[in-house]
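Help needed: design a sequence for this.
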């Protein structure tokens, strides 16, 4: 049942504030973080290894910034297909964390099995509680997104991020990098996400208009710094999956090390830049693109748009959001742009060619 939507993907995009609220209610009780048994004590963990595929991997990439920043916990991330054959040494004090919507992805499951008996703890962040990955982990953490039907993952991504954000706060608390007051404040930020997301979802018409222009492009670049680098990847993946437009993500600072050679008036460059500590850096990279005739679509908030100055091709004005949770909210324009561009091109949004919802063979 598409609930009045034209596609499951659009229904699942719209559902995000409500499924996120479920996840928040499950993990935050009376202002405190509650994990299911057997719990998790980050004081005993010295290192976190996170492994996943595709969109779930980009959730890991965001989480790496969170864990390192707020919990000062060293994090290694890898895509499952590389991790499993790399056979990395797993040293004492390592927790291994696997993120998977389906819980059945062959490479992710193989990576988990590789860590069995080597890692101190095997944690999974999954949507399907009875899946192989959930069953084979010491601590399966459900994301409570409900069934995701669209092949392109949307609500699972933001629910994965929400659970990982809460876990990063828990790690910060256990490791003494946040006191009770700071934990309460951080949890309030996470709890504010569904409400702010509703404002971002109201940008549907705006992104639809922009997407009509994007649909003409053959190549599109996405740029971001910090956690927005991960969102740039997610935006590019979503766009290529369902609209078949070639899209690439780069860390803004990497631009001048090669990809800037691609920039001309035919390549839209989507810059994801909330007004945060890295904003000025990203904007200076954006100006380098504009100086070479590149068409910039800037996704930022009001203050960011003001400071970025004139000359951008188009702007998507996002609601103001705390930098810690901004990656969860900025998933919305990434999803909406891909969705409307695909609709505009007339591709099969829910069943893109060559793709399967669950990749159970390597
Ligand atoms: C992208 C997408 C895929 C999956 C990947 C992992 O929209 O859906 O990249 O994220 O195949 O799948 P799970 O999360 O089921 O392990």
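Sure. Designed sequence:
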């Amino acid at each position: 049942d598409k609930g009045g939507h034209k596609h499951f993907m659009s229904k699942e995009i719209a559902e995000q504030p409500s499924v996120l609220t479920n996840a928040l209610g499950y993990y935050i009780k009376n202002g405190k973080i509650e994990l299911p048994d057997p719990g998790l004590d980050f004081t005993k963990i010295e290192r976190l290894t996170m492994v996943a595929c595709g969109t779930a991997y980009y959730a890991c990439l965001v989480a790496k910034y969170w864990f390192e920043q707020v919990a000062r916990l060293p994090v290694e991330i890898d895509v499952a297909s590389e991790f499993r054959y790399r056979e990395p040494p797993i040293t004492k004090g390592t927790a291994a964390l696997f993120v998977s919507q389906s819980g059945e992805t062959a490479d992710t499951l193989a990576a988990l099995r590789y860590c069995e008996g080597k890692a101190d703890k095997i944690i999974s962040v999954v949507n399907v509680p009875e899946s192989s990955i959930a069953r084979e982990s010491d601590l399966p953490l459900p994301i409570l997104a409900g069934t995701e039907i669209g092949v392109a993952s949307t609500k699972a991504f933001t629910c994965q991020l929400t659970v990982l954000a809460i876990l990063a706060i828990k790690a910060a608390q256990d490791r003494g990098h946040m006191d009770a007051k700071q934990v309460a404040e951080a949890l309030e930020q996470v709890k504010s996400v569904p409400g702010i997301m509703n404002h971002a979802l109201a940008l549907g018409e705006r992104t639809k208009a922009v997407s009509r222009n994007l649909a003409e492009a053959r190549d599109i670049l996405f740029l971001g710094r910090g956690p927005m680098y991960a969102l740039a990847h997610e935006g590019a993946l979503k766009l290529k999956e369902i609209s078949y437009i070639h899209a690439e993500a780069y860390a803004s600072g990497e631009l001048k090390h090669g990809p800037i050679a691609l920039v001309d008036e035919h390549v839209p460059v989507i810059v994801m830049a909330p007004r945060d500590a890295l904003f000025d850096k990203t904007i200076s990279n954006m100006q380098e693109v504009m100086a070479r005739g590149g068409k910039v679509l800037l996704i930022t908030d009001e203050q960011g748009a003001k400071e970025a100055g004139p000359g951008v091709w188009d702007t998507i004005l996002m609601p103001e959001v705390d930098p810690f949770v901004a990656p969860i909210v900025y998933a919305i324009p990434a999803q909406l742009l891909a969705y409307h561009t695909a609709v505009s091109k007339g591709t099969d949004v829910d069943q893109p060619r060559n793709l399967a919802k669950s990749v159970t063979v390597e």
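The mean pLDDT is 96.
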